[in-house]
């Protein structure tokens, strides 16, 4: 394990050197991640789409999302293969909470995704329709 002729002092210095190097590298790595993490995502640039309150859903549904800026958006219903099935609405949203109502009786029973699409994001959530 130890080299022949190596004193305990040299071994101790080697262990301290390796430990210090590892500690400094770890701190630098964490600071680098923190630096890039702070500026990477600006939450105000994105809408937040909430889940439906009931599952399975039926009748009139209320889709709710929030936005920190006014922007053009589309709310879509997608099939299970993520193909556009119905466009519910395409318009500008207001700042804050937005509620979009939709009559799900137009859809056959089954699984779907509802998708909020803006110029910089596309977020989808699953829903089951049982009318």
Distance between the termini: 73 Å
Strand order of the largest sheet: 4-3-6-7
| Beta-strand content estimate | 35-45%
Radius of gyration: 27 Å
The total beta strand count reads 7
- Counted by DSSP, the helix tally is 1
- Give the overall shape: elongated
Biggest β-sheet: count, sense, barrel? 4 strands, antiparallel
Find the structural class using helix and strand composition.
alpha+beta
Please provide the ordered H/E string of secondary-structure elements: HEEEEEEE
The CATH superfamily of the largest domain bears the name: Macroglobulin (MG2) domain
CATH T-level fold name of the largest domain: Immunoglobulin-like
Q: Identify low-pLDDT runs.
A: none
Please give a quick description of this structure.
By secondary structure, the protein is of the alpha+beta class. It has one helix and seven strands; from the N terminus they run H-E-E-E-E-E-E-E.
Tell me what the structure shows.
The protein contains one helix and seven strands. With 131 residues, it is α+β, with helices and mostly antiparallel strands. The chain has two domains: 1-40; 43-129, Immunoglobulin-like. A hairpin with a 4-residue loop joins strand 6 and strand 7. The protein is elongated, with a radius of gyration of 27 Å. The model has no long low-confidence stretch (mean pLDDT 89).
């Amino acid at each position: 394990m130890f080299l022949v002729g190596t004193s305990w002092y040299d071994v101790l210095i080697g262990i301290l050197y390796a430990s210090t190097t590892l500690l400094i590298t770890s701190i630098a790595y964490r600071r680098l991640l923190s630096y890039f993490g702070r500026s990477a995502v600006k939450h105000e640039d994105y809408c937040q789409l909430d889940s439906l309150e009931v599952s399975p859903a039926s009748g009139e549904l209320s889709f709710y999302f929030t936005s920190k800026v006014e922007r053009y958006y589309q709310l879509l219903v997608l099939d299970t293969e993520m193909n556009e099935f119905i466009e519910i609405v395409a318009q500008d949203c207001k700042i804050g909470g937005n509620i979009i109502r939709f009559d799900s009786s137009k859809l056959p029973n089954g699984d779907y995704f509802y998708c909020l699409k803006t110029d910089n994001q596309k977020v989808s959530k699953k829903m089951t329709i049982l009318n």
